[in-house]
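User: I want to check something. If I give you two sequences, will you return the structure for each one separately, not as a complex?

Assistant: Yes, each is folded on its own. Here is the first sequence with its structure:
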Amino acid sequence: MKTVFQNQKIFFNSNASKSISFRKQQLKKLKEVLKANEDSFFEAIYLDFKKSKFETYTTELSLLYSEINTALSKLSSWSKKQKVRSNLANFPAQSYIVPEPLGTVLIIGAWNYPFQLSIAPAIAALAAGNTVILKPSEIAVHSSAIMAKIINESFDASVFFVQEGGVSETTSLLELPFDKIFFTGSTKVGKIVYEAAAKNLVPITLELGGKSPTFVCQDADLKMTAKRMVWAKFLNAGQTCIAPDYVLVDETVKESFLKAVVKEVEQADYALVNGNYVQIINDNHLQRLEKLIDRNKLYFGGKIDASERVIYPTILDNCSFEDMVMQEEIFGPILPVISYSNLDVAIAKVKEREKPLSCYVFTNSSDIKNKIQSEVSFGGGAINDAIMHISNDKLPFGGVGASGMGSYHGKFGFDTFSHFKGILNKPTWLEFNFKYAPYTDWKQKIIKMLLG
């Protein structure tokens, strides 16, 4: 582990990874490797989740290909020095900003989308010219193993290396003086990573989670709202950091909304055999989720197949913010529904809690859209849709407050793994003496005129 780290430091300091052609070469190689081994990725994630090829491609691999394609097409322009205006005090200088890679970076991935959430930040880091050590989550054991095998067989370890392991290996990695750490996971573990990074003053990006609210307003198109929200909630069996965690619905449309949701769930016919559903990652998570289902508030579902590690779509009605299910991020296929009679009160309840990673608003009212966007702080979200903002690499993806810090995707990922160096380039053929001694009243007067 230390040897790989040291070799990556040496390689980075050789300046080889800073070459635009070298970066593009690594990205092209990564795309080729992913394409050539798609079947192995499909098999590995099926062993972990029983996830279908269709959903693995659409929610994992396709997003990685899109990130690589964007980086390849935009990398030259992203990497150029950017000219900016020089102020009058520095006349006749030129000023510009130079993007440069940070160095050797550590990426700690998450288990719920093991390929996307591990490799996407690595794409950004490689595009920016860094060397990368990737630590996938050990929870998705088969997905972790296939990433390690394929990447370590295909890449020079001094450029890109996958280090498998659990808490012990992660702890050892965090003791090393990386130039950047990028972590995706829970808020609890994020705090541990943040504390470890602080000991070496390592800059860090945290992609965490939280209880992402969905507002369903009186004027919402309930049929389309149910269609889009149900898909987003039960995708990956709810094991999605930006899934709608709970619904706040106007009390005047609650019953119609619930019926529309049930109808949509029934039409989707979620099941492993249908290729549109997955297992809960392990028994511990299944047992945790089972405890969150209040049978007294069960509106629909609640069926559990422990032998298959499956919890079928479950809807809880007449919930309140005091319920157990509302005390932590659910991260599973359980949807609590809370009705409201006053939107201001509902917004206030959301604002009393930690800032969520996402927020979704279903309404046709411009006033309500603007109100919730301006009054509720959250990482990112959508209006009349859910989750799909993640697919647009023109948008930054990241949290705020307890849901994370920093962002990535597209140019935002490049920026996250870059330092922007400010340069003043001044000729020697002219120099005013205003800043030099002896100091006089007229010099001060001129400086005030120039600088204010």
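And separately, the second sequence with its own structure:
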Amino acid sequence: MLVLPTALAVLIAPPMVVPDADPDDGGAGLVSRLEEYMEAADAVQKFNGSVIVTKDGEPLLARGYGLANFEHEVPNTPGTKFRLASVTKQFTAMAALILAERGKLGLDDPISEHLPETPESWGGVTIRHLLTHTSGIPSYTGLSGFFEEKSILPLSQEELIGLVRDLPLEFEPGSEYRYNNSGYFLLGMIIERASGSTYESFLREEIFEPLGMEDSGYDRAGPILKGRASGYERVGELVRNSRYLDMGLPFSAGALYSTVEDLARWDRALAEGKLISGESYEAMWTPVKDDYAFGWLVRERDGHPEQEHAGGINGFTTQVIRYPDDGVFVAVLGNVVPEPVGEIARDLAAVVLGLPYEVPRPRAIVEVDPAIFDDYVGRYRISPEMVLEIVREGDRLLGAPSGQDRAELSPTSETEFLVEAVRAEVEFLRDDEGNVTGLVLIQGGRTMQADRLDDTKEEEATPAGDHDREAGDGDEEPDQAG
């Protein structure tokens, strides 16, 4: 099966570009367009989850779609609790900043000051490096066989960090960006040492309770949690329970739960400058490398400053986006993977911002001469960690990253294909002489271009290093652990 480094998404139809809407035409008009979009996402993409859109703290749309539990047919609502996956990271970053303001830690402290058991090779790694994914420490979720062999085990913090402590750094700390769950896991350990409390208790007492986020916390399998969604995966038309994951493993990198309503409260707290000083907020919102700041991707969209993060974990995909200058906030939480949460969130934001957006529509499969498939057979590098292999079997074109089950590519034209099993789209690219030089992959609202590899040379993908970004245009959450 084709599983790529991102929160996966359904494909929309040939794009129907909606003309720029007037964001000032009245609340009723905005609400109508938001509802129209989500009705299409529900009908065409079979979206399953909950959504909230707010303007200056006031909800324009807050609704659940599909089921929180398929066995008992319990519907999703705005109050349904979802695993947040890597949206957790912004709360971990806030906790670190709270402790920094109290003098319990310094952002430029070497992590060995708080975790003396860390190896000597990590001596140049600081807390700031962990916050910005620039530490160079290998990500445990990127280790070969981690999900198959380790993810169901109740590993201690020491055992989990032990998986990477003896590996060499991937680069000099501070010199590069590489998305890294190990770094945020280590931040949770530092928060516990510096505060004298558990990570779970510190966030509850210092963030959730002060902000009135009564439906947020650390997701553990044991306690009865009213309103908790179950996580599922979709394979073709089949929906089945997601694989078990011990929630001690994502920890401060991805183990929190919340509701879209509580996330809207979080957005208002950020807008009002609660919990930390303006100076700390400035640090939190300042990107270091590749647009990544402290637990947030910070950039601009068509002239609108944007702060966002995505997440993906077994059975759940998540996306939050803020447009602070416009007072716009969107949260989309899904409990069936793949789910196009990033695409949906950005389109809903576009409705409110008056930007063009695309309404989901069905897309037709067409017949083409199978002989053309021979042109596309080969290998394509999606990222340093992943190579996509395209093969022909009879009259079918199939593809998958190395080592994964193949999925069929169904043509919508001679160059464009749907991968319906995982809700992706592939377009093959040709040069001026007609040679196939690469492909474009669209999945989860993310567009990725892959160059075709020269199969006369020996080229291998480097070990997977976790998802590369987790962002609303698809950067988030490929690995299933946060």
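Because they were folded independently, the notes below concern the second chain alone. The chain has a mean pLDDT of 88. DSSP finds eleven helices and 24 strands in the chain.
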